[in-house]
Structures are given as structure tokens and as C-alpha cells.
């Protein structure tokens, strides 16, 4: 009981709509809230096979991506501490038919509000419904931004942007990442990414080693991504 109370108290601090809920709604969430500790590489949500529910990240990092018929991946967006994901509960919104996979990029602690519980509260609460629409609009803005990048930005600029984003996330210029992983994020082929990174290495922007990429010239990468 004590552990459950601590869990709910922690959840209250992370869930922005808690104070907008009435007593019955708070109890409904408290009684049905799922806590998960997932290891790096765990698939949390798998396309239209799941209607997992609303995800709220306590700590860690998740990756949301789509998979083509040929098996190629492309990252839509990532989730960090205190981020929420609704596409894992897209079944609660009839007009949304969006198949995504959500994977833990790092060991992650998260909460899940089951889809039916959240759907019921959303029908009753205007603040929750409004917040849900805003959150979904934000995620689709992320997707539209990605489409623009794919359509209008050359691959060298996209790779430069990705490497800079990774150094910001990891807090280091020594990235432990494979060419295959970068290809999956960007919806490309490993061989194409390898050729691009070797070009970057020849230009003195990066240094490549097995499973690692060292960023040597961040300023030139920033200039490249903006050009």
C-alpha cells in the first residue's frame, strides 16, 4: 500500500492534468495506473497490434518509429523525461489510424494509463480533451517536420543534424552508435550512411571507429545543416 501511494505521489508531479481531475477520476487512474521498468531495446508498443494506453516517461528515452513494407525504419520522434505519448493509444481516437512502434532506447521507467481508462476520462473532462488534442497536434507537427526534412533536405544535412542532436542528447562528442542505427533513424540504408560518414571523415568533420563516431568539428556540421 505504501509503495502504491509513493507511486501515485510521483505520478502526480509528472502528470500535468492531475489537478484538473475530480476525485473519482483521480481514483480511477490511481487504481489502474501501470508502472513499468523496461530495458534498452524493449518494444513497448507494436503497431496496430496494441492499444497500449497513454505513456508518460518518468526517466529514460523512448523512440517512436514507423516500419515500411520492406522493413526499413524511420524515427518520427523521441520521448524523454516527463514526455507523454498518445500514438500508443491512438485507438481512443476513431479518426487516427497510425501504426507506430515504440522502443526503449535506454533503460526507462514509465507509467501507462490504460487506453479505456483515459478514453473515459477524456469524454468527461474538457481540460483532458483539450490537452489530448494539443498533444496529438504537437506530435503530428513533429511528423510533418520530418516529412519536410525528407522531401527538401539532402542526406548530408540530415546526417549532420542527427549527429549534432545525438551529441546534445548524450552530452558528449564521442558517440557510441552504429551506422545501422543511424540508417534506421533516418529511413536510409546502412551502406548509404557509411559512405556519407566516410565523406565526413575525409572532410575532417568526424572520426570513425568500430561502433563509435567522434565529432571533430561541430561548427562545420552546424554550418552544413543550415546551408
TrEMBL record:
SMART domains assigned: HTH_CRP
Domain of life: Bacteria
Listed name of the protein: Crp/Fnr family transcriptional regulator
Domain HTH crp-type positions: 153-219
Organism whose genome encodes this protein: Blautia intestinalis
Keyword Transcription: yes
InterPro entries per record: cNMP-bd_dom, cNMP-bd_dom_sf, HTH_CRP, RmlC-like_jellyroll, WH-like_DNA-bd_sf, WH_DNA-bd_sf
Pfam families reported in the protein's UniProt record: cNMP_binding (PF00027), HTH_Crp_2 (PF13545)
Keyword list, A-Z: DNA-binding, Transcription, Transcription regulation
Amino acid at each position: 500500500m505504501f509503495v502504491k501511494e509513493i507511486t501515485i505521489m510521483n505520478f502526480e508531479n509528472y502528470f500535468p492534468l492531475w489537478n484538473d481531475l475530480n476525485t473519482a477520476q483521480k481514483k480511477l487512474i490511481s487504481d489502474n495506473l501501470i508502472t513499468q521498468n523496461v530495458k534498452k531495446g524493449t518494444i513497448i508498443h507494436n503497431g496496430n497490434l496494441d492499444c497500449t494506453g497513454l505513456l508518460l516517461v518518468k526517466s529514460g528515452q523512448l523512440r517512436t518509429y514507423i516500419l515500411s513494407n520492406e522493413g526499413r525504419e524511420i524515427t518520427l520522434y523521441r520521448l524523454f523525461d516527463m514526455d507523454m505519448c498518445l500514438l500508443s493509444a491512438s485507438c481512443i481516437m476513431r479518426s487516427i489510424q497510425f501504426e507506430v512502434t515504440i522502443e526503449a532506447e535506454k533503460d526507462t521507467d514509465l507509467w501507462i494509463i490504460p487506453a479505456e481508462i483515459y478514453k473515459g476520462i477524456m469524454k468527461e473532462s474538457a481540460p483532458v480533451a483539450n490537452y489530448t488534442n494539443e498533444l496529438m497536434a504537437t506530435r503530428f507537427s513533429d511528423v510533418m517536420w520530418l516529412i519536410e526534412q525528407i522531401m527538401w533536405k539532402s542526406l548530408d544535412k540530415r546526417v549532420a543534424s542527427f549527429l549534432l542532436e545525438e551529441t546534445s542528447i548524450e552530452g558528449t562528442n564521442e558517440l557510441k552508435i552504429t551506422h545501422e542505427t543511424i540508417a534506421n533513424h533516418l529511413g536510409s540504408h546502412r551502406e548509404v550512411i557509411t559512405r556519407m560518414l566516410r565523406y565526413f571523415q575525409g572532410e575532417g568533420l568526424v572520426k570513425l571507429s568500430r561502433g563509435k563516431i567522434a565529432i571533430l568539428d561541430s561548427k562545420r556540421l552546424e554550418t552544413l545543416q543550415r546551408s
